Amino acid sequence: MTDNGPTAATPGGAAAQPATTTGGALLAGMVTAGLGLGVCTVSVLLLWIAAPAPAAGSPSGALHIAADLWLLAHGADLVRTAGPGAAAVPVGVTPLLLVAVPVWLLYRCAQRALSAADGGPRRHARGTGPLRRPASPGAVLGRFLGGYLLTAAAAVAYAASGALRVAPVSALLCVPLTAAGAVAVAAARTVGLRAVLPLPARARRAWAGLPPGVRAALAPPRRAAALRAACAAGAVLLATGALLVLTGVVWHAGAVRHSLLHVAPDWPGRGTVLLVCLLLLPNAAVWGAAYALGPGFTLGAGSAVGPLGAVGYPAGLPPFPLLGAVPQEAAGSPLTWAAAVGPDAAGAAAAGYAARPARAAAAARGPEARLLRWNRRATATVAALAALMCGAGAAVLAGAAGGALGTAALRHVGPSWWLTGAAAAGWTAAVAVPGALVLREWHLWRTLGRSPLAKRRS
């Protein structure tokens, strides 16, 4: 349904371009939300069918949990109560792999709606009358988001009661932000953000008033090169975190197995726990990346887990397999300090991508002036921008990977978003800026046969 949409028939009977009006965009948004809810519903119902009869509950409870999970995938917090009069316990850790379901659907369906709206003028459905111009991208996206949020509002109303329920305030904040972010990325990749949200005159005047050096640093070529370098550094950091998680699982295999058997004595329950662990693997990779960067993460009650040591674990941590892979309380050692190789590798990856424009210029076999067009200032600027972007991305992921799992000791678990972002930016800048400059000189040396610095000194 994300690849094929309704088509408008021409008077001769042939199919024309997909017709997307503002009303059609509203329906497309509602269908997109329904698809996401359907994925969660089918998954939960399959687990409900496989569960033992005494613990399975009712089908309405399974549908309620499906709505809760769909809202949790947008970043909304859940609230759990053990019974009448019991204290409410927040559940604020969002499985990042679960987030991929609504975000991918929003991205694909918004792209589809924008592409259909950009198909050119079309006639009325009856084939008579003047040509009807397509709706503007801003109007299409507005109606698309409106339909999506209408369905989300119905889901919030349905999931706002019960033993496990959604916190309405967090849902009203997080669902629109997540939907708008995914749709904005789709708009940027399809028609450009300026076609949807043109800059006001005041913003254009402010941009024109910036110093020339700042405007040159934020020009599209340098911004695109910095984004590629930041993505490369972020991918290396996440790979480092995933490798640390895998190492911890293998190193503490006995504790992981004991936790799995304790929390789920039967095979259907173990399958459910393993599925939850799979959904939380991206979260664990972010925690591992924060561990490699130095700030580490917390398991609540003021605890700290990092390469320099692990201290202050709260008593009575829940028996969960991924928590069994956490290092035991002890001081750091050269083995844990070796995790710093990951941030160094991330900075090296950013340096390689920041120096690529100079490498491309060197490979173009143009005149010497063309080889030196991407000068040292541009290379250092791209590397520094990549470090800032990598830090911003690390901060966002760290904030999304943690949250609350209780009201006392587990009030917050996971990495600190601002410490993780600052560490990622600092590590990347410390390695990427000098590394990119060195790589630039090396690429030009290989092409020119001598250093450009030596020529300038002569």
Automatic annotation (TrEMBL):
Q: Which lineage ranks, top first, belong to the organism behind this chain?
A: Bacteria, Bacillati, Actinomycetota, Actinomycetes, Kitasatosporales
Q: What's the name of the protein?
A: DUF6350 family protein
Q: Does the keyword Cytoplasm apply?
A: no
List the Pfam families hit by this protein, alphabetically.
DUF6350
Endpoints of the signal sequence: none
Among InterPro entries, the record links this protein to:
DUF6350
Q: Which UniProt keywords apply?
A: Membrane, Transmembrane, Transmembrane helix
Q: Which residues cross the membrane?
A: 25-51, 87-107, 140-160, 166-188, 225-253, 273-293, 380-405, 417-439
